[in-house]
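Re: [ENG-882] Designed sequences occasionally contain unexpected residues at chain ends

Forwarding the minimal case from QA. Structure tokens:
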């Protein structure tokens, strides 16, 4: 059973790897033996995360990347292809949020959130999949969605729309890339307090979330690691593609 989740010899690329959730997922993959490449904009923050990852006896590197810039994404894909011979696991975890009231949302804010949450995932997958397709290397892509992708949450219309888009392109790419042995799945987290949503977690909103969550608590970032490791493993999830794996404490199952 341990061998089923052994990721030794695999290279995991975590886009948005300096975020709370991204770094925690990277650490979980490292604990299962995967070598790690983090991407992000904050080199100083990355250095501390890399140090912790390396304590698991794996290699860990950082490529400064701005997912809002297609050239920056392409550069990261080129570096990984040339220096590492391709990737095995690709996590798309970069994300931003905003609680701007509906009538106050302007085009710039809409575009900014869509660029990070949706557009970057599309073009990251395109660039990285193209490299592995040529190498016939296969791979596992794991996109990070949200419970708001299924039933849009109040106060975060742009975020909800972007995450619904993630679900759609995940299913599309699962079909498109299956012949290249690249699996594409998404994880749908519930409420995991992180940089992008702490500012909108008012007392009233926290109460509303808890009233709708059977487990009556927020998730811990470490509770996403199991789903990520499972989807990353070819032995454990080799026939799983186009799936949405929900980790939400029962939030999505609650109707009344």
């Amino acid at each position: 059973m341990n061998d089923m989740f052994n990721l030794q010899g695999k290279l995991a690329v975590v886009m948005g790897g300096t975020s709370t959730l991204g770094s925690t997922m990277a650490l979980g993959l490292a604990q299962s033996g995967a070598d790690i490449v983090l991407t992000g904009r904050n080199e100083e923050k990355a250095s501390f995360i890399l140090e912790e990852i390396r304590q698991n006896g794996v290699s860990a590197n950082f490529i400064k990347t701005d997912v809002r810039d297609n050239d920056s994404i392409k550069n990261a894909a080129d570096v990984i292809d040339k220096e590492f011979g391709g990737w095995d696991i690709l996590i798309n975890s970069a994300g931003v949020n905003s609680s701007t009231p509906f009538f106050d949302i302007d085009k710039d804010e809409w575009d900014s959130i869509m660029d990070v949450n949706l557009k970057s995932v599309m073009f990251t997958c395109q660039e990285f999949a193209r490299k592995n397709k040529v190498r016939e290397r296969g791979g596992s892509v794991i996109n990070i969605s949200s419970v708001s992708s299924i039933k849009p949450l109040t106060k975060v219309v742009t975020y909800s729309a972007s995450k619904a888009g993630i679900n759609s392109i995940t299913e599309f790419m699962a079909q498109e890339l299956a012949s290249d042995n690249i699996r594409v799945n998404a994880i749908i987290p519930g409420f995991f307090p992180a940089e992008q949503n702490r500012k909108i977690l008012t007392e009233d909103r926290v109460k509303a979330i808890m009233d709708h969550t059977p487990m009556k608590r927020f998730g811990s970032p470490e509770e996403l690691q199991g789903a990520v490791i499972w989807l990353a493993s070819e032995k454990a999830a080799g026939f799983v593609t186009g799936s949405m794996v929900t980790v939400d404490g029962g939030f999505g199952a609650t109707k009344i």
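QA comment: On inspection the terminal residues look reasonable. The chain is about 45% helix and 15% strand. Proposing we downgrade this to a documentation issue.
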